[in-house]
Amino acid sequence: MKSKALFLLFPLALAALPVVAADLVRLDTTPTGNKVRIEGTSTIHDWQVEGSVIGGFVEVGPGFPLRPGATVQPGKVPANVSVFIPVRNLKSIEKDGKPYSTSMDKIMYEKLLEPTHKRITYTLKELELKELPKTPDAPYVFTSRGELCVAGVTNTITMPVTVTVLGENKVKFGGSVPVKMTDFKITPPAPSVALGLIKTGDEVKLMFEWVAAKRATPAPAQP
């Protein structure tokens, strides 16, 4: 009887084991389809900054949708994410997307301590599937928690993330989150060229679209 009980508990023990690296599928950033955008306010007008480079990778385990129409269940999903944004790739733009001001770019790089902290980085700590797609083309909705490092200061942030399956082992992540500059020890700019009369709002909105895909296995060499 005792041996039978142990036999029944064995599958439960296996389910409780942590997901190892071999169980994870790695997706790497693609060279196109990526965008990061920062929106803020000032005493004279709203402003926006954009970049087109997001580097890094994501490793996902069972329960993450990796093909169109994948059946998955809500709940926590094993995942590792490590991404970065080059500070110098960020540029101020007009609302129509045209370049805005190299002077603003220079101030931004100074505030972000670009000479010593050339990247904004993000490391995922937890990912949970909250909502399944309502239509075949709709995204999966996750809640994420991770560490955002800006100008050498790291804060934990929580944000909703959408995942759109673009094909077999290719997905697009999207998300947005409000943050405060002062939380990262950044003093909101008040340019001296305007005698400090132009003041920038503390809160900004970070938005991103990031495409990641599994690398193709190289074809074997022909004899």
Please tag this protein with its features.
single chain; about 220 residues; mainly beta; Lipocalin; 8-stranded antiparallel β-barrel; 2 helices; 12 strands; about 10% helix; elongated
The CATH homologous superfamily name equals Lipid/polyisoprenoid-binding, YceI-like
Helical content class: 10-25%
Average pLDDT for all residues: 87
- What is the strand content? 35-45%
Principal-axis shape equals: elongated
The CATH level-2 architecture is identified as: Beta Barrel
Structural notes for this entry:
This protein has 223 residues and is mainly beta. The protein has one domain: Lipid/polyisoprenoid-binding, YceI-like (Lipocalin, Beta Barrel), CATH 2.40.128. The chain contains 2 helices and 12 strands; from the N terminus they run H-E-E-E-E-E-E-E-H-E-E-E-E-E. Strands 1-4-6-8-9-10-11-12 form an 8-stranded antiparallel beta barrel. The radius of gyration is 22 Å and the shape is elongated. The protein starts with a helix and ends in a 10-residue tail after the last strand.
